[in-house]
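User: Here's a chain of 362 residues. Predict its fold as tokens.
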Amino acid sequence: MPESHTFVVVLAGGSGTRLWPLSRSHHPKQLLTVHGERSLLQQTVDRIAPLVPPERVLIMTEQSHADGIREQLPEVPAGNVFVEPARRGTAGSLALAAAEIQRRDATAVMASVHSDAFITDGDEFRATLGAAFTAADATRQLVLMGIEPTSPSTQLGYIEAGDALSEVGGYTVRRVVRFIEKPELERARRFASSGRHFWNPGVFVWCVDVILEEFGHYQPAILDRISKIAPALGGPEQEQALGELYPTVPIETIDVGILEKSDRVAVIPARFDWSDIGSWGELFELLPGDQAGNVVRGTHLTLGTRDSLVFATSRPVATVGLENMIVVETPDAVLVCPRDRVQDVKKLVERLALDPEHQELL
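Assistant: Prediction complete.
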């Protein structure tokens, strides 16, 4: 399909609480530099740029992140950064993005990607995304990417694939049978070895008219609110319309609200390595370690520490005899926890949210 009709929407509104204390509500995971020289958000846009230029990239975010995003992405036009006045879930965000893209190009095909994914093979990602653009345009399906599992993860959602629908550029497009959210370990083991189940990385591609048609079928209340905002998009009344109407959009995710209901959903099994860096433990697994198995960022003084992650941002960190631990230092907080307890960091942040004395740490 003509590349001039392709757009990419980057969802950049999350808070990344599992990477506390480095990730905060005002400076979330996607704005952090956890590997390389660029933030996860910048790497996301860099990865897209050879396929879709910044003029056709939309960033969906919230007010607390907007300034940081504009500072990090000067190449993206200011009007392409959409500041949602309230969190309404990914369904409302993508319906709004589809309405804006349709205003610009009624024949457009749009992709939705998350701003905080860890992907090392940019060429393979772009090849898969290009195939998904072509497949969505040709088949009029809602096309998802699926990642072949490398482990029986219980923290990720799975896509079950069915029969092949078509071949596009060497990629097989398969019908989606169902979605399974965070299965128990035994089911996850079966899924990881089945050849029919794929991790759901949240990368979606569809024609704008098709997705808005599906909103009409399955989420008419959301479409009704977005349709009232649409006439103001791109004009002087856009901010007022968003402020008045967007907070009334029903809260829903695109997965539950549309994808799990629609009968026109397909998946392209992807060949690139992917992680959502959902915890400090995942970051430990992704980054290279030293001879003692330690992953270190910043200044680390050690005696007998092994197989641990040490992330120091403002001071030297000294450890003695630690094994399989996570240590994260920031100017106002320090996290220390065993690697097998990293999923509990989210619970810790939830407890902080209930403590008036520590609100500044969120």
